[in-house]
Each structure stands twice: as C-alpha cells, then as structure tokens.
C-alpha cells in the first residue's frame, strides 16, 4: 500500500466499502493498493453536508471509498449510504465488509467454521424485537418482498465465482491477500486464534450460571425467556460452559504436526439475514437456516441495499448463539477484507460517468438524495409498525403495510416534487398511526 498525491476527481469513485466497526475498517485499509491524499491540490474534499468519514484509494483498477460508520445497525448504515452520493455521485456498487454470525452447516452439509468468509447471494430482511431471538422474526415487507438479490454485474460475477475455476482463483487471491494483511496488521492482534478456540455448542445449550453458583434468574430458567445480564457479560470459561462435553457438537483439534500451516479460510455463498439486532439463539439460527437457506447474520446491509446494488462479504466470528466471544473478530475481519479485495479484482471496471449526458448533474444528485431520504423514512416507518405490532393486534396493520408496498412499486419519475409529496404522505400516515398506536400502548399497559 502506497500513499498517492496525484490528481483524482470525486467522480472517479465507483465502489463504496461500508464498515461498521473500527477493526473492520482497519483490515480493509490494508487491501488498498494506493491511498489518496485528501489535502490541498486535490478534488477529494467531502460535501459540507456529508458527515461521513472516509478513506479514499485504489484497489486494483477500482477507485474505492471506504466509509467508517459511527455505530452498528441498519439506520446508521442507511444514513451513511445516503450521504455518500453527496460527495461521490458515481458509486455503482456497495460492499458491506466486516464480521458476522455464521450458521455452522450449509444445507448441502458443508461445515462453516470460525474465520471462514460468506459472500451474499441475496438478503433476507428481518426485524427482531428481542436481541436473544426468542420472539418470531418478522420479515420486512418492501417492494421486493423479504428477499433482496444483487442484480446486473454483481450477480453475474457471483455466478461466475460459483464455477470451480472461478472459486479457486478467488480463494487463492484471498489467501495471498490475507497473508499480506496479517503481516501489516500484526499476527499478535489479528492472527489466527487457534482451532481449539472454535467450539460449537448444542443449539439449546444456554450461556448461564451453573452449580455451585447461585443465580435466581438462571436457576429458574424453565422459562427460557429469562435473561441474566451478569451471565451475558461473562465468558464461557467463567460460566463453565465447556464442562458438559455432551453439549459440544464440534470441537476442532489442533494439528498434531506443529509445522502444519494455519487452516485456510473457506469461502461460502448463500443468503444472509440482515436486521437491526444481534441474533443470539442457536435454535432460531437453525430454524432460519432450514427454512430459508441462511448462512449468516449481520446488521448493516438492510440499510445499504436501498441506495445502490449491494454485496455482503463478511468473516464468521461466532455461531449466532448465546455463547458469543469477540476472540475471533479481528481475524474474521482480516479474512473478509482479503476476500473483498479478491472479489474486486474479479469485478469489471465501472464507468465513472455518473449521469446521462442530457441530465444536469445537480438535478440527478438532488433526485438521488430525495430518493435516499424516502428510503430512510420508509425504514423508520417500518420500525414504528414493528413496534406497534409487538404491543397489540392492530386490525389496520396489514393495510398500512400494503400502503408502504404500494408506495414502493410506484414507477416514480425523476421529479423532486414527486418524491417530496410521497415522503410527506408517508410522514402524515406515520404520524396518524403513531397517535393511534400511542392509545393502543396506553390501553395495553392500563
């Protein structure tokens, strides 16, 4: 990676990489072949109204903008993605890169282990009222239903990488990139944690206090919805989760030959569930994997896909159960960043021309911003509906959702006023039902 002060224009950037956590962004920075100087003499300064923080550079033949999100979650991701167009209007593809929870086994029987990488072939949008995933998942009802698939060039490349030859090239480049990344980041902080640290528990096995520790919450957990905050903050070693060997479904032993290389990450393709809550329940994880073929869980793509074509590339750092640990996050982030670079090396170059010749630049930017605002408002509106649905059964709830769907399927013109009127309609409708929902909440509590 080198630093470059040559003249680069904002319109040349066609790829956005979005990272929610600092160590994810740090890993992605190692993938840059060049990092551009944003000082004087360059045309790279952000728009005054764009609050995002960026790293700008080149990966292969692509000019890439790395977005440093302030926090995790779909709303932060949506805000960040909507703001990118202010400064870099030519973005054609978004990569959501970082760490995720993984399903231990694919539907065709292959193991997914910690440190592996998942590339999304589609997104299952969900909203979860309980971070422990005890309640039912409610798919979001946008115009694409609850499934979103990449289209155009991203989908074509993913299909190409399914082939044996394409996969081997992608994997080889990922491994080479990972070796270089770990040399830069340091094995001590980002290195492979060891196979002995990769343990898979039975889906129903709880992360809780065990005898002889006395805990009123954990000892009375015949009601599985009981949640012990003290246990949540404790590690599996502290709680003795490893002591019951019958609950360990998979333990990866270290190779007997100490000179054996570190296991190489495997790259998996499949649908990824994306929402605004961390999935921490092995049973719900397996339920979604069986019904929808889900291979991973993450929290940002739901906010990005509304703004431009999106592919998720994430490293598996836990098994989306209650036995979570941050031990694998750095290595998984490095694996994902290395795979993202390998993916971009296969991705055809995009034309930096952002707008049709006959369209004034300011008009197109204005319309894209208004569309982003409408998408963001719709996301907030859906969150309000989900909240009301948890309090009481509302007879008009289905009609509200139908209204949101109807708004989505309109063939909207590029007129700013059209977007403004629809956004105003969504706001007024949301305000009306928010008032009604407040009365429902009061009645339910009373």
Layout: helices, strands, pairs:
Elements: E1 2-4, E2 15-19, H1 22-29, E3 34-36, E4 53-59, E5 62-68, H2 74-87, E6 93-102, E7 117-127, E8 138-139, E9 147-148, H3 153-162, H4 164-185, H5 187-190, E10 199-201, H6 216-219, H7 229-232, H8 236-239, E11 248-251, E12 267-274, H9 282-292, E13 296-298, H10 301-304, E14 310-318, H11 329-346, H12 361-391, H13 397-409, H14 416-445
Parallel strand pairs: 1-3, 2-5, 2-6, 6-14, 7-12, 12-13
Antiparallel strand pairs: 3-4, 4-5, 6-13, 7-8, 7-9, 7-14, 10-11
The Rg value, from CA coordinates, equals 23 Å
Helix count from the secondary structure assignment: 14
SSE arrangement, N to C: EEHEEEHEEEEHHHEHHHEEHEHEHHHH
Oligomer: single chain
Largest sheet: 5 strands, mixed, barrel
Gross geometry: globular
CATH architecture of the domain at 12-199 and 262-346: 3-Layer(aba) Sandwich
Helicity range: 25-40%
Q: Can you list the strand order of the major beta sheet?
A: 6-13-12-7-14
> What is CATH's topology name of the domain at 12-199 and 262-346?
Rossmann fold
Quick check: average pLDDT? 75
How many angstroms separate the termini? 62 Å
| Name of the CATH first level of the domain at 12-199 and 262-346 | Alpha Beta
How many strand units? 14
β content, as a range? 15-25%
Compact summary:
With 446 residues, the protein is of the alpha/beta class.
How would you sum up this structure, described in words?
The protein is globular, with a radius of gyration of 23 Å. Among the domains are: 273 residues, Nucleoside phosphorylase domain (Rossmann fold, 3-Layer(aba) Sandwich), CATH 3.40.50; 38 residues, no CATH class. A hairpin with a 2-residue loop joins strand 4 and strand 5. The chain has 14 helices and 14 strands. Strands 6-13-12-7-14 form a five-stranded mixed barrel. A two-stranded antiparallel ribbon has the order 10-11. By secondary structure, the chain is an alpha/beta fold.
């Amino acid at each position: 990676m080198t630093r470059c002060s040559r003249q680069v224009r904002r319109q040349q950037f066609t790829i956005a990489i979005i990272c929610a956590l600092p160590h994810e962004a740090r890993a992605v920075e190692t993938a840059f072949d060049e990092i551009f100087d944003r000082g004087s003499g360059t045309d790279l300064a952000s728009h005054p109204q764009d609050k995002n923080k960026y790293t700008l550079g080149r990966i292969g033949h692509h000019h890439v903008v790395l977005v440093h999100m302030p926090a995790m979650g779909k709303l932060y991701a949506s805000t960040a993605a909507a703001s990118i167009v202010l400064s870099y209007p030519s973005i054609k593809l978004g990569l959501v890169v970082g760490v995720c929870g993984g399903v231990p086994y694919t539907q065709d029987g292959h193991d997914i282990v910690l440190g592996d990488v998942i590339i999304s072939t589609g997104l299952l949008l969900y909203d979860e009222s309980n971070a422990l995933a005890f309640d039912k998942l409610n798919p979001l009802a946008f115009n694409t239903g609850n499934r979103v698939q990449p289209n155009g060039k991203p989908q074509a490349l993913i299909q190409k990488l399914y082939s044996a030859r394409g996969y081997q090239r992608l994997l080889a480049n990922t491994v080479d990139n990972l070796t270089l990344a770990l040399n830069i980041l340091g094995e001590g902080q980002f290195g492979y944690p060891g196979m002995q640290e990769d343990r898979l528990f039975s889906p129903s096995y709880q992360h809780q206090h065990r005898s002889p520790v006395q805990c009123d919450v954990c000892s009375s957990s015949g009601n599985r919805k009981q949640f012990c905050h003290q246990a949540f903050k404790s590690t599996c070693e502290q709680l003795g989760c490893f002591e019951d060997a019958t609950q360990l479904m998979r333990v990866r032993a270290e190779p007997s030959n100490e000179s054996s290389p570190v296991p190489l990450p495997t790259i998996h393709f499949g649908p990824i569930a994306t929402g605004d809550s961390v999935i921490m329940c092995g049973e719900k994880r397996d339920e979604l994997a069986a019904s929808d073929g889900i291979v991973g869980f993450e929290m940002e793509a739901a906010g990005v896909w509304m703004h431009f074509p999106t592919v998720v590339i994430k490293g598996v750092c836990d098994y989306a159960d209650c036995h979570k640990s941050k031990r694998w996050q750095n290595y998984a982030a490095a694996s994902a960043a290395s795979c993202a670079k390998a993916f971009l090396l296969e991705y055809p170059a995009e034309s930096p021309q952002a707008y049709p010749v006959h369209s004034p630049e300011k008009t197109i930017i204005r319309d894209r911003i208004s569309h982003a605002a409408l998408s963001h408002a719709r996301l907030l509106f859906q969150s309000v509906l989900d909240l009301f649905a948890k309090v009481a059964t509302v007879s008009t709830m289905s009609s509200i959702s139908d209204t949101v769907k109807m708004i989505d399927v309109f063939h909207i013109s590029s007129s700013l006023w059209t977007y403004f009127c629809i956004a105003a309609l969504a706001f007024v409708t949301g305000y009306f039902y928010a008032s009604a929902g407040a009365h429902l909440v009061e009645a339910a509590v009373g």
